[in-house]
């Protein structure tokens, strides 16, 4: 076809013109569109964005509808930089757009877009101005959705730089690739499958995804694949809110997920694939470690979030490290609710609840059950886990770690259709190092001692059953917690097989539903230590056990029900328990020193709740079998004045069927060795029953030589003795029952107290005086003297000893409301020793065995040789305290073998000592209950020796238990040498004993009314006293007493009868006997003739004087009778010398002397008249002659002849006489003549001395006539009454004429 043909053809012309027009249009568009589009695009975009928008070049190909824009840039707000830059934008349009009236694009390509975005502050960006312009409403009503069809959408080489000034971070997104092959909402294209892809690298982490779906179809079906490899979370940590209680430090996310979305009648979203978080590390608000793990991988089989279904193939956790910490205030780092962030959200929750949200328990539970997720996990595995525990409330801080944690669980289905099964294992050990360091981050420093733990079980939401095996758990792990309470450390190992069962209690029930079980638990080498590790048990010797230790504790078949509060144990066994029970001088027990004082609490005391607290239920504990083997206890109490120390070894206990609340007694078998000091330990065995409700014990007890003396310091303060040794033994039955009325005790068997040794204790002051006194220097041992003089410690010496005290057939019964009964079948005491001392205060040491606040001093009652003491009124015995009944005591025969008593008297100076040896005897049975009115008397026989030579014998009847006391005792001592008694003689008489023996017969009778009658017959043979001892307290004429008392054979026989009442508190037998003996010696001085009178028929002190008539020297018949007794006594005691002293008194005898002279003149007148051839003699001469011959044999004058003789005497007397009228002497009456004659008789002192001399001569001549040797008679110088000492006359007594008789030995 040529041009002409075209011109001729109309349609050809039309086509040509059309083609030319199109070409022209293309040309115009090709030339005009780019500059116009560039200009208008820059202008409109700048106006819309408020930023300068520039385009580098625009290329448009109208023939292919291809538009290319290069170097598109949006400037920053300040215009200094580019906010957005697109290197190339390519759009390939389709002519279908004209036909479909909707954009149909064959390709859209964006090359190398670059965006720079800056976050200025919270919620503010550098594009806020652009967003504000774009968000302004246009004011036009919305139109219909735009239909479009886009093909081959692609974005390549994109990058984004996001600068966050609020956190100081810049995020870089590189290699951004986005491809969408097709995207259309045209009706004809909605079913076309779309396969988009997105990939980029964000901060070095690669992200890639792919999808396939029909997003605009009716079902919106989509299947996508999301892969995220090594996505590091570190750059985004600053965007985590600071209010969160935890901080994410590191983390890497890896995903390979497939997402399936489809919307039919219901929307369905399904996830499957794997999600893994690696190298995750969480810290608390203080950036301290909280949680970290190497990897957490979830393999999703089928997860439907909208359907609330999840099927997880596996959950694998590798290398988890959990750090649990409790700070000094007691707050836990895992308690996120207690953090400030959590606390700040609490008001929000409270406010929501206040607005009426339906949060009631029933509704919430029902809704939760309806909307509950259904989760199924096929497998859970934890490998290489570590749980670190740090407790800052302890000092030092506790650091424990659960390492090598392995946990496996399978068949987990929620809600539970069947129990899940789980198992695991771990290693528990302590962690050394700083408590602030991460235990998980320092695995290289565990304790060398670690425990292994394995467990397994099943669980649901309503029950848990778990069994665990724990092996070699070191108890030292608890040291930080124990350090807050006790000083010593704790060592040992725990191995156990445990189980626990929990069942959810019913709604509203106050129960835990928890049951704990112990199949086997073993504690080995358990010991409190001083901080050093102990890997082996302590030595059996309890002396080395300063701190308690147990080789092994074994518990088997134990079960604990927390709800019922019951504990049942099949077996509890302790092997080789060692303990040292000590109390120091500060009276603090060892456990008080172990315990630490709790820190003072700052909380006020009143801050505690004052609500009443319900009383706690009592736990019921039952143990089927309790066993203790090889136990040892060392006991020491230094708080006493003398330490208490004893040791218990080889302790063995077997207890069966024991329960705290059981009323049935439990069989008990126990044995032990108990020792004190270096002696052989004793043995204690018990076989019987033990009950707690009520407290009771009944069984066979065998005790062999238990060291009772070890406990002496506890009761020794109440005694004045020190118990050095006492081994007690018992074999028999014991029954004890605690009742409401009081204890019931029944003891039957045989007992013994062996190797008894007790010393007396002298107070320091008394010991020092006794030791340093010259009088006692020879009686106190040298060692005792040095101890007393060198310190103020009490001084002791042996007091009581015996080899064995055996009590057989003991039967003791004590029951409330009845009298205590004590029966003893037989008692034997062998090889005994007693030290009897009269102390310087006069008391016997055995009286003061028990200390008392007031020591009564016994006052000696007055003694008399014959007269009984008037008994004091009887004192009724005080009733028993509280009205208790008097005990009933029946004692069988008592035998004494080979005894010794050492007697010392420190009351006298120098001291005296005597020994009683070979004491052997017996006492028959007696009782405190009298069968009739009179008590049962026991026969007593006791024989021995005194001072090794004298025989001793005591026989009689007595009852020591009788109330009141009753006895009839006879004692005999033969041939006791007296020189050892010299100290008594020196003290009381001032003379020592040089020679002599004594025999004694005594008899004491005490009646039930307390009346004592004592007969003491004392025979002294050849008693001889030495010279007077200078410095003695007193000096008595003992030689005179001996001369008075001893017969011709040198034997003195004294009877000392004594009587009195034992009810008189002032009555004391010993002082009375001594007082009676002293009275005899004193009487030798004051009344020697009384002794003679007692020996020879009585007469008393009147034998010491010879009475005369006033003015007369003639012996009266009574005087001659008394002188006959004196003569007989002098004849029996040739050693006595007598001096006769005549006495006279001028004042007292003046009238008597004149009367006697007048009588003498009358007798002389009679002799004159009767004398043949006698010459008359003047009257004065006759009177003188009569006075001179007064001692001549008396001439008697009768009453009838007396007047005539008197008249003759008056007639011859030369004296003034009354006369009559003629001067002749008058005849006077007899009385007047006597008065005139006596008035003219002179009386002078010389006459009185002559009278006294005449009296002495009369007595001496009479005794000589009675065959008294002249060498025993002496005439003393006469004494007038004025010459006699006042002491010779009794005070207030009238003087009478007499002659004194004085006795002496020389």
TrEMBL record:
UniProt cross-references to InterPro entries, sorted A to Z: AsmA-related (IPR052894), DUF748 (IPR008023), OmpA-like_sf (IPR036737)
Gene3D superfamilies assigned: OmpA-like domain
Single GO biological process annotation from the record: regulation of protein targeting to membrane
Gene Ontology cellular-component annotations: plasma membrane
Ranges for region Disordered: 1279-1306
Domain of life per record: Bacteria
UniProt name for this protein: DUF748 domain-containing protein
Natural source organism: Rhodoferax sediminis
